[in-house]
Specification:
Order of helices and strands: HEHEEEEHEHEEEEHEHH
Strand content: 25-35%
Number of strands: 11
Length: about 210
């Protein structure tokens, strides 16, 4: 949901976007596109609309494709599948990792030089999937971007300019890895407390 929504917004802003999809999805997307029902909260009152996004999709890629930027938006438990793929196919592309859950950079560093990577958090987008339809929410929040060493680099500024043109409100961070670590701890402890309480309703009613 997050990767597709960001891709859609970047394409709307004029960027040349390609989606990597699983083998079984390519033919379906080529025929029918991707239906996105969007609640856009960047404007007041919020806008609700439905579009059919028809991106260029591939089942595989290689260094010869010469991408400038690869955005990785997967679950943390999918990194072990994705990172080795990137190591052999990314070529000279910069790699931006968007992760909701964070366990550090070790999984990445085993396969890819960390200097090729930078990191972010997609505050702008949320939602879910219902059948073949993406229910996307675009919030008025920022998209955090940062380098592992805290520097403000030319690629960070280039990416911020692209995101800004797509109204994805980039915010450059000098502490992206500590921020992602703290965010992971907050999410994990909240889920743990919810499980302990029995449900989210029970959790919010129980101050202790």
């Amino acid at each position: 949901v997050i990767g597709t929504t960001y891709a859609w917004q970047l394409a709307e802003a004029g960027q040349d976007v390609t989606l990597l999809v699983r083998t079984g999805r390519k033919a379906q997307i080529d025929r029918h596109g991707i239906t996105i029902r969007c609640s856009d909260q960047r404007v007041k009152p919020r806008q609700r609309y439905e579009v059919v996004f028809r991106p260029h999709v591939v089942k595989d890629f290689s260094p010869d494709d010469a991408y400038d930027l690869i955005i990785v938006s997967v679950l943390a438990n999918q990194l072990d599948e994705v990172v080795p793929l990137l190591a052999h196919r990314a070529g000279k592309a910069d790699i931006l990792f968007f992760l909701n859950l964070w366990t550090g950079t070790r999984q990445i560093e085993r396969h890819i030089d960390l200097s090729r990577c930078f990191f972010g958090f997609p505050h702008n987008v949320g939602g879910g999937r219902e059948g073949g339809v993406i229910n996307a929410i675009i919030f008025a929040d920022e998209t955090q971007l940062g380098e592992a060493d805290g520097g403000i680099t030319p690629r960070l500024e280039r990416t911020a300019a692209v995101f800004r043109a797509a109204r994805l409100k980039p915010e450059l961070s000098r502490q992206i890895i500590p921020w992602l670590t703290v965010h992971y701890v907050q999410q994990a402890s909240t889920v743990g407390a919810m499980i302990e309480a029995g449900s989210i309703d029970d959790l919010v009613k129980n101050k202790q």
